[in-house]
């Protein structure tokens, strides 16, 4: 069944031996349009760590209880990688910004510790008299955060039209099947569905999603209205 991806945010994760936290973000790949990770905020249980759980570990979502059963035990969840192991583009870019400002003279090192950012000395080096932040190997340029891209402007071949409101995902294959475009600010007053295959580029810096369609083609796309999930499921 197709589900709105952002609806899964804040769903609780229920392991066989107890609750392990809630979904705080969802990471997807913008080259094959698959969900890669659910980001789990485990709260005080593990000192606020954000862990990555693959969709294959999750059972069928309970829409009314807003919960996912998970096949992992709490100990197995604790052993899962955290978000620093596979960072989306937005976090990669934020690190690059920190790399720049780490050697900018406008920052007072004394305010935040030895280097102004709480970074260990091993992460910093002096090159040509300037401090340089070692960001390590480049991350995956196709890994995106749902929390980051929702709200990005939609740029058609002939101009702007709406913003990215959500994705629809198949909750069995975990493939993103449509993007939901909100066009109400452009006078059309509706949400329309576009295939992710029409996306040319997602630009973190300008907060744009570029679509390989004209504005007329986008506004003429199939409209979408979220179902009433309070209705009982079909027999």
What does the model show?
The protein has helices at about 75-80, 90-100, 110, 145-150, 215-220, and strands at about 1-5, 10-15, 20-30, 35-40, 50-55, 65-70, 125, 130-135, 145, 155, 160-170, 175-180, 190-195, 200-205, 210, 225. It is mainly beta. It has 3 domains: about 5-85, SH3 type barrels; about 90-135, no CATH class; about 150-225, PRC-barrel domain (SH3 type barrels), CATH 2.30.30.240. β3 and β4 (about 35-40) form a beta hairpin. The longest helix is centred in the middle third of the chain and has 13 residues, at about 90-100. The two termini are about 15 Å apart.
Give a brief description.
The protein is 13% helix and 35% strand. The chain is mainly beta and 235 residues long. The protein has 3 domains: 6-85, SH3 type barrels, CATH 2.30.30; 89-133, no CATH class; 150-224, PRC-barrel domain (SH3 type barrels, Roll), CATH 2.30.30.240.
- CATH class descriptor name of the largest domain: Mainly Beta
Give the CATH topology of the largest domain.
SH3 type barrels
CATH architectural category of the largest domain: Roll
Domain tally:
3
How many strands appear in the DSSP assignment?
16
The rounded Rg comes to: 21 Å
Shape: globular
């Amino acid at each position: 069944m197709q589900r709105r991806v952002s609806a899964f945010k804040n769903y609780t994760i229920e392991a066989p031996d107890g609750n392990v936290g809630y979904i705080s973000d969802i990471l997807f790949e913008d080259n094959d349009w698959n969900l890669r990770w659910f980001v789990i905020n485990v709260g005080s249980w593990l000192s606020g760590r954000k862990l990555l759980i693959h969709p294959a570990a999750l059972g069928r979502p309970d829409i009314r209880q807003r919960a996912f059963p998970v096949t992992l035990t709490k100990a197995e969840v604790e052993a899962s990688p955290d978000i620093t192991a596979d960072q989306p583009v937005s976090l990669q870019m934020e690190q690059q910004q920190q790399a720049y400002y780490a050697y900018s003279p406008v920052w007072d090192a004394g305010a935040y510790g030895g280097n102004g950012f709480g970074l260990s000395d091993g992460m910093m080096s002096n090159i040509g008299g300037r401090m340089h932040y070692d960001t390590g190997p480049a991350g995956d340029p196709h890994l995106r955060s749902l929390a980051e891209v929702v709200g990005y402007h939609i740029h058609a071949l002939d101009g702007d039209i709406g913003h990215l409101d959500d994705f629809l995902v198949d909750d069995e294959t975990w493939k993103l099947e449509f993007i939901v475009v909100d066009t109400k600010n452009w006078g059309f007053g509706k949400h329309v569905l576009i295939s992710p295959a029409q996306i040319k580029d997602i630009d973190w810096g300008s907060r744009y999603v570029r679509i390989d369609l004209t504005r007329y083609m986008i506004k003429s796309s199939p409209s979408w209205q979220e179902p009433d999930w309070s209705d009982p499921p079909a027999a």
